[in-house]
Amino acid sequence: MARESEFLTLDDRALRAVIGPNSRHVALIEDAFKVLVEAPGGGVSINGSARDRANARQVIESLAKRADKGAEVTEADVRAIMGTIRGGGVNADPMALPVGKRGAIVPKTNAQARYLEILARCELSFGVGPAGTGKTFLAAAYGASLLRRGQVDRLVITRPAVEAGEKLGFLPGDLNEKVDPYLAPIWEALNDILGPEDVQRRRDKGEIEAAPIAFMRGRTLSHAFVIVDEAQNTSRLQMKMVLTRLGEGARMVVTGDPSQIDLLNPRDSGLAHALRILRDVKGVGVLEFEAQDVVRHAMVERIVRAYDADAAQDRPRPDLEERAAR
Q: Against a cut of 0.85, is the pTM above it?
């Protein structure tokens, strides 16, 4: 197959993003698509077969777009975009969110772009899947953008407190001090988006509220964006209770990883039950992330895949269950 070259013109910012620290991004692209990428000045040249060049060009153009929007481009971004293209997808035009400390916040994968579309379209959204897919961070970013634009009055964050067998009552401090350790990922996201001072100011004014799910009972949450995090650890009764807190002008997103249930009886998880009975209800949107959507360290995706494979082996086979019943 003939190998030819083509040249893409890039400005300095896009060029730095494409090349990456110590040419790491270029090396990843070359290894993935069997091309040669060089930067003679003013852009990059791609040498390889027509198909390989086309795939590499899509990655480079996507990275350049992220850089042009002021977003930081990391190795995780490169791997995510390459995974999308190798899977036959086309990287969607990023739906920009607020500008954080590391630049504009934009979806890094097609799955993240679809997730943001669901958040914008549906009153009740579910984002489920493995760790590292951005489901909680993007929910916080989207909620912060609504709050900052005045489209909601409050951002309410809640989650069950059942991790590692600990209960909130045994932790020192007031309610905020008890709850905050459980919500560290969300606080990190909000601090990155709004800044720590703005987050604290809004918390003091009641515009940002965090509480365990037990404190949601009896309330009506109007004109609020509600994030129910780690929802795999809610019971069915807790899930029904928190979902029915929605009031006028409110929206809710439920996030969780069904493979990490800490309940004594995993079958009581309210997340799987809610997904089963609400998936086709009007106004409900569901995005299920998979291992290839992980945007953390590349090792995280490999870890998730290994655990998924192990779980599949442990899953009872119907033919064996039938024999045992005889």
A: no
